[in-house]
Amino acid sequence: MEDMPSVLPDGETMPEDGSLPASALAGAGDRPLAFYLHVPYCATRCGYCDFNTYTATELRGSGGVLASRDNYADTLADEIRLARKVLGDDPRRARTVFVGGGTPTLLAAADLVAMLGVVREEFGLADDAEITTEANPDSVNPEYLAELRAGGFNRISFGMQSARQHVLKVLDRTHTPGRPEACVAEARAAGFEHVNLDLIYGTPGESDEDWRATLAAAVGAGPDHISAYALIVEEGTQLARRIRRGEVPMTDDDIHADRYLIADSVLADAGYSWYEVSNWATSEAGRCLHNELYWRGADWWGAGPGAHSHVGGVRWWNVKHPGAYAAALAGGRSPGAAREVLPDEDRRVERILLELRLLDGVPLRLLKPDGLAASRKALADGLLEETAYARGRGVLTLRGRLLADAVVRDLVD
C-alpha cells in the first residue's frame, strides 16, 4: 500500500515538459517498470489520516470543475500519456499497476478500468502483470468487483483495520464489522486470486483481546495476504487533537511491540509467512510485487496529485491539489512540483533502509566500516540472523523486526 504524504519535500524545479536527465534512462531495460495511480478522493476523512486525500467538502470551491471526480480518469490519462513522451522509446511493459488513494473505489469501476487501459495502450502490460486496487469495504459490491476483474484487475486490497466496532469508531472508519470478510468472499467469487486485508494495531482503547479477534476474523476470511501496521498518530490529524485534549489515550511503543508479536504468532500458525516487516502472505505468489519493486529500488511512475515517482535515481513529486494538478495537465505542462537527482550515497542508504525490512535482507557489502561494526553488534545482540550473516546478508530476527528502525540507523553510519 502506498501512502501519499500531505507535505511535499523540497527539490529543484521540474521542467515544464517533465523531461528527465539522460542518466535516468541509462540501463532502464534492466529494471522493472511499475505504475502507481493515485485517486485522491474520500467520502469522509478518517481521524488518523495524514495522506493527500480530499473529501467533496474540502474540494468545494477550491478546485472547480478541473478537480471533479467525474472527469478524473481522463485527467490522469493525460499524465500517463505524458509519461510515454518522457520515457520515449523505452520498450518496457508495466510489470505492476497499483491504484491507491484515498478511496479509488469511489470512482466508477469503469473509470478504474479506463485508467488501466491507458497504461496498457501506452506501455503494454507484462504477461504476468500484477494489477491491484485498494478498496474500502463499504464502497464495493459484487457487481463492482466483477467489473474490475473483467477489466483486468487481478489483486485487491481492502482496508479492514479492525473487527471491533469501538476501534473502528476511534479511527472514524465507516464500514461495519464483518463487511471486510464478506468483501473477501465477494472478491473470490468475482475471480480475484489475490486478496489483501490491511489491519491497524495500537488504536487507543484497543485491547489484546480486540487485536486477537481482529486477526482471527482476518485469517478466517481467507485472504492470501495480510498487512498489519502500527497506528502512527500524525500531527494535524483529528486523532492527534483528540489525544491532546485527553479524549482518548495514546498507545505506547511497548504495546505496539506486544501487538506485533501477537500478529506474527497468529499469522504464522495460520500459514502466513512474513516477507516484509509489516506484510505476510500464504505463498510467494501472494506477495505484493508492486511494493516489492518499491523496496528494491525499481522504476515507477506515480500519476496523480501528490504522487511520487522514481526513474534511474531521479525522484520527483507532483503538485498536491487536484485542481492544480488538473490545471497543469490541461495547460500541457507536467504536474511535477519538484525533483531531486539522488547521489550514489543517498541511493546506498535508501537501499539499506528498505531492503533490511525484507525477508532476504540486505547485502553486508553495502555497509561502510562503522555500519559493518554495528552489524556485528546487532548480530551479537540477536537482532540479525546468524546463518544469513555467514552468507554475507543482514537479515532481521523477530526481535530485530521489533527494533528495525533502530537497527537501520546504526547500519547506515
Commentary on this structure:
- The protein is built from 17 helices and 15 strands.
- It is of the alpha/beta class and 413 residues long.
- Strands 8-9-7-6-5-4-3-2-10 form a 9-stranded mixed beta sheet, with helices on both faces. A 4-stranded antiparallel beta sheet has the order 1-13-12-11, with no helix packed on it. A two-stranded antiparallel ribbon has the order 14-15.
- Strand 3, helix 4 and strand 4 form a beta-alpha-beta unit.
- The chain is globular.
- The two termini are 29 Å apart.
Properties at a glance:
four-stranded antiparallel beta sheet, 15 strands, 413 residues, alpha/beta, nine-stranded mixed beta sheet, 39% helix, disordered N terminus
Detail the topology: elements first, then pairings.
Layout: E1 12-13, H1 22-25, E2 33-39, H2 56-59, H3 72-87, E3 94-101, H4 109-123, E4 125-135, H5 142-150, E5 155-161, H6 165-171, H7 179-190, E6 194-201, H8 208-221, E7 225-230, H9 238-244, H10 253-269, E8 273-276, E9 279-281, H11 289-295, E10 299-303, E11 308-311, E12 314-318, H12 322-330, E13 336-341, H13 344-355, E14 362-363, H14 369-380, H15 386-390, E15 393-394, H16 398-402, H17 404-411
Parallel strand pairs: 2-3, 2-10, 3-4, 4-5, 5-6, 6-7
Antiparallel strand pairs: 1-13, 7-9, 8-9, 11-12, 12-13, 14-15
Helix pairs in contact: 3-4, 4-5, 5-7, 7-8, 8-10
